[in-house]
Amino acid sequence: MIQDIYPDRLNNVFREAQPKPEDFLLHFNAEGMAMKYEKNRLVFPAASDYPEKTEARYLFSVSGRGFFLAGNPPVGTWPRCSMRELRELKLSGNADIFEAYTAYHLWQWYSTSVFCGACGGRTVFDQRERAKVCPECGNRIYPRINPAVIVGVKNGERLLLTRYREGFRHNALIAGFCEIGETAEETVRREVMEEVGLKVCHIRYYKSQPWGIASDLLMGFYCEVDGDDTIHRDENELKYAEWIPREEIVLQPSDYSLTNEMMKRFRDGEEP
Questions:
Q1: DSSP string, 193-232
Q2: Nearest by Cα to 245 from 156, 171, 176, 181
């Protein structure tokens, strides 16, 4: 999955730091992310690619390599960098896309927490932890993380596969966000009922996955259909929902997602 970057390791402990020339400075805007070509592939720009006085805020490190969020440098100061969509990033492994998604997650939060939601005052960076603080009313704002569930619904030797009506075009599982006052297990029951009209039982937690491109924390569960297995598809949400035998499961084209791993585990008879 996207976070499986061994032998690299994420260190997201908050600290104040200044970039070294070899550290990475990542810049985002509505067009995407600043990248450069190196040896015929897109890579992250280093601090040495930016003007010396470019504003930089420490985000995290991966195996000792620092990642910083760059401010807006003057036009024309990127002779080797251009704005690219994240999906254009040429990957040498999961670490690249994981680092880009995690940095994007923090950039989105910084971009939407400029002003206080309580009084409208302009926020400032806290010096002790990763938070924004309003000097006017004292309101503290932490990075937004959206909890959501991915659900593998089993029916004997078959798994419930879906496809969204819009957007992602490949096979998926039932998924949805946790609502106020719900446990993750209650979210599983509600989402399955809402999307395909089925009752489920024997809910078992599998594992979780950060998904920074959408500010999500995904939690995977397997469960079993309880009683009638007739699918009543929510046509506004899904264009496809069927029980598929193990040997006929078609996986997603990439192996980054929790959804794909869960489908693969079931296909191979290795689900918990």
A1: HHHH---EEEEEEEEEEEEGGGTEEEEEEEEEE-S-----
A2: 156
Query: Could you give the 3-state DSSP secondary structure of residue 183?
Result: coil
Greatest extent of the chain over all pairs of C-alpha atoms, in Å: 66
CA distances from 129 to 40, 138, 181 (A): 39, 15, 27
Give per-residue pLDDT as tens, 143-185.
999 999 999 999 999 999 999 988 778 999 999 999 999 999 9
The answer to whether the CB of 117 falls within 8 A of the CB of 139 is yes
Phi, psi values for residue 100, rounded to 5°: -65, -45
pLDDT in tens, 229-238: 999 999 999 9
- The pTM of the full predicted model, rounded to 2 decimals, is 0.90
Residue 10 tokens, joined: 């994420």
Contacts of 252 (CB under 8 A, 6+ apart): 170, 171, 172, 259, 260, 263
Helix (H) / strand (E) containing 161 = strand 158-164
**C-alpha dihedral, 134 to 135 to 139 to 144, nearest 10°:** 30
